[in-house]
Fold each of these.
Amino acid sequence: MSTTPDSAVRAYIADHREAFLDDLAEWLRIPSVSADPERAGEVRRSAEWLAAKLTGTGFPAVEIWETDSDGLPAVFAEWPSGDPSAPTVLVYGHHDVQPAAREDGWHTDPFEPYTTDGKLYARGAADDKGQVFFHTLGVRAHLAATGRTAPAVNLKLLIEGEEESGSPNFPALIKTHADRLTCDAVIVSDTGMWSRDTPTVCTGMRGLTDCQIDLYGPDQDIHSGSFGGAVPNPATEAARLAAALHDADRRVAIPGFYDGVIELTDRERELLAELPFDEAEWLRTAHSHATLGEAGSTTLERIWARPTAEVNGIGGGYQGPGGKTVIPAAAQLKLSFRLVAGQDAAAVQQSVRDWVGDRLPSGIRHKITFWGATRPCLTPLDHPALQSVVRAMGRAFGQKIRFTREGGSGPAADLQDVLGVPVLFLGISVPSDGWHAPNEKVELDLLMKGVETAAHLWGDLAETWSTT
Ligand SMILES: [Zn+2]
């Protein structure tokens, strides 16, 4: 199965490690904070820096792509394999970073990379510059070890500049350039692993849709003595809706909500159960005092593989000091729904609308506003590209690679939707890397394992995955 002798890959990486880390440090010095309008120029400088570096790496086509609404630029690069039957892979990452300032609790300047004890500290070290940059040395090592002059797959990179600001222009960007982005699979290089000791591949993310429900009762706040008990109360109805969201088993009680849900297979449940999960430690990170959720599912299953309904906010009526005996004119409820593969966000939204409409008494008018929808994504365990990622990581780490999922939602789903291909996740970051937090770091040995994984991946994919 192995096309790239592992020792040749390791030797090449060892020879080029220092220059690679110097280059990464140079990139990390550019404070490409997308949320700060004053640093828009730095985000652009970061894009230009990366574009030049990708040209230097050997990518024959490198372009800076502007985004709508005067947004921040993305970088696109393409390196054709030359082999007409080779699969095409698109690597996604981002070159913008979260804000960071010394006074937030950083021990050193967040934009002056600092290495100690095998860890490189800087804003963006793990999220996401380090994890984008390992692909540059990875592809060079792949070429050096195989004697090729072009990668074994058609390799494309799309490195966004607005991810940390919610990717406002990303769906439009990928629709505009859809013809350039055609591929057989997307590899998202912006995630992490379970832990240092348990390298993992993430196989899916949940989707999301959320809404506000405004409830209106009497035309103004009215006296609860004169009228109470004889007219509907919108605050009471908001609470009744919230209370009716789940049944006694904590399953979502909205009819149709679970339609289409792809259930975990027994094998997937076994694999999740193999992860060394410490529930007490997890509860500490959750700042919660107990677990609670859908009957019949474990905590990891609940956060990764089950859809949910949550009340994000509930309000209405008098909230000031002391009492005020009114029936309020209005109340609001904010709900969010995490979705899993097989669920259709539009169908879920309709189910919510029908459910709310059916439950409210006459005399309560309502309005539902959905803020948006992100589709879930899931790659089957037996997908050939996923198998390649697992083998490449296994060779780099010398360990069994396990599987995780991600409970959150992200721009990966846009890629899946627009390009219509599976999305895979390759990350070497660990939970202690402090994404978005002070003293963000990347562990250098894991970063070099990322390089090595990338070096093995393209040959394995080309050899084992026939897309024609
Ligand atoms: Zn990121």
Amino acid sequence: MTKTLTQMAVEVLTTADGREKTALSHEHAAAWFAARKAGTPIPVGTATPPLRPARPEKPELLDPRDVPRRRPGSPAGRIAILHAVAHIELNAVDLHWDIIARFGHVPMPPGFYDDWVKSADEESKHFNLICDCLEAMGSHYGALPAHAGMWRAAEDTRDDILGRLAVVPMVLEARGLDVTPGMIDIFEKAGEDGAVAALRTIYAEEVGHVAYGSKWFHFLCGRDNLDPKDVFHDLVRTYFHGALKPPFNEEKRAEAGLPPDFYWPLAD
Ligand SMILES: [Fe+2]
Ligand SMILES: [Fe+2]
């Protein structure tokens, strides 16, 4: 019997090693799109994802306050930045499979799954690109401690698909659009061409993930005749802890379907 998409998602979520998790993610994405193209789509089904995804033994996960500060001017500081990015990308792989697995019971058009499978596949590529850079610099993912709090948004919104879309792609991934250009600058100044290329790929593809979030958020609000802006403000205030931090990348946010009246009222 063929596996369902939600079963495939759970397989990725329960694989601990980063390289293995991302290889499986890529394999499942390829199978999903091949079946769609052949006109014999893989059924979505329903499955029970773990509350938290499996993770490798390293990195050690610390409270954000205890993660050592990075000084971008030094090679060690740049390794620390890339290590933090690798950690974000690995979480992002799981976040995109988790939205598929977690909400299999909510009827959605096939394009919803296409978007998140594609995003998960891109995150898998991002993780591997950054791991390759770390290894080229004599380090690796797991060499430094990382943020423990990153799965909190997923846990908080495990019963609320609108809350999940509001907080994960439309707040957290949108924040990535704000901060990535500054990161690219740091690596350009240091002449680290490999990292610059990897971060440019990430920057270009993350616009799409925010856009998918906004698209399906608006779709669900429209299906229930809700005002998307008001619902967004309510959900972010419920599930996101703290204010949004300007400066915002207004141009890329606009490209991703996030208008200023969505995020400015939530800023400091
Ligand atoms: Fe990414
Ligand atoms: Fe993303």
